[in-house]
What does this fold into?
Amino acid sequence: MLTALRIQERAHAPEWSSAPRLRLLPKGEQLRSDAAPEARRTRFVRSSAAAAAPVLVAGRDAATRAQVRGELGELMPAGTRFEELGTFWELLARAPSSRMVILSGEVDELPAESLLHALAHRHPDLPVVSLEFAAQA
It folds into this structure.
């Protein structure tokens, strides 16, 4: 059910954007061979404040959170800080000072889709990804 995150270059990126996009792939699926070399060369430069902000991994199930954290740890730059959260109040308190939020499932019996919309409404500039919602689509 869980998917791995991989970086893939846009086939036709806008002129003003050279940023890669993240695409959810089923576990074990590889990128197209023509996209992989560009993805490996992509490097991000962040300010020290943004780099110090943690990536929040939220979900009810601790084992699923740990698995998602492990997969993200392999994909994201070394030194990326992660925090695992299991309750809604922790998520609301920590979200404003985080780099992004990854929802691995429901939190406090609130569906991941509802959490995604609530966080997007409260913090429109905060990237929020629901792996549960993406897996259902």
In short: Residues 3-41 form one domain. The chain has two domains: 3-41, 48-136.
